[in-house]
């Protein structure tokens, strides 16, 4: 699917492939738009209707969790989260 050194969305540079599975892969990236070069994880799904539909549903859930946590907690910096949803985009 992807290779170390490749860029995702003209922003995230892949540094390491964390894991591969039947639904896609997870990679460790450097956020080139962040002045400090923040390290992020990116989940790359396969481009099949079933997988795309599942990914869109997962994105919806993650966005809702982020909104619920922000509304209910005094955690504006996102320090108490296991996963913080940052972005989604189509790639290739």
Textual characterization of the structure:
This protein has two domains: about 1-45, 2-Layer Sandwich (Phosphorylase Kinase, domain 1); about 45-75. It has about 90 residues and is an alpha+beta fold. It has a four-stranded antiparallel beta sheet. A hairpin with a 3-residue loop joins strand 1 (about 5-10) and strand 2 (about 10-20). It has one helix spanning about 50-70; strands spanning about 5-10, 10-20, 25-30, 40-45. The mean pLDDT is about 85. It contains one helix and four strands; from the N terminus they run ββββα. Helices cover about 25% and strands about 30% of the residues.
Poorly predicted spans = none
Order of helices and strands: EEEEH
CATH class of the largest domain: Alpha Beta
Q: Distance between termini?
A: 10 Å
CATH architecture of the largest domain: 2-Layer Sandwich
Shape: globular
Mean pLDDT: 83
User: What is the H level of CATH, i.e. the homologous superfamily of the largest domain?
Assistant: Phosphorylase Kinase, domain 1
- The number of helices is 1
Give the number of domains.
2
How are the strands of the largest sheet arranged? 1-2-3-4
Helix residue percentage: 25-40%
Topology summary:
Elements: E1 7-8, E2 12-21, E3 24-31, E4 39-45, H1 49-72
Antiparallel strand pairs: 1-2, 2-3, 3-4
């Amino acid at each position: 699917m992807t290779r170390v050194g490749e860029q995702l969305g003209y922003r995230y540079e892949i540094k390491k492939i964390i894991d591969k599975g039947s639904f896609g892969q997870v990679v460790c990236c450097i956020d080139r738009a962040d002045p400090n070069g923040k390290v992020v994880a990116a989940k790359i799904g396969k481009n099949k209707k079933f997988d795309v539909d599942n990914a869109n549903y997962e994105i919806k859930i993650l966005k809702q969790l982020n909104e619920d946590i922000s509304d209910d907690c005094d955690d504006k910096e996102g320090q108490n989260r296991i996963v913080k949803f940052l972005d989604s985009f189509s790639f290739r």
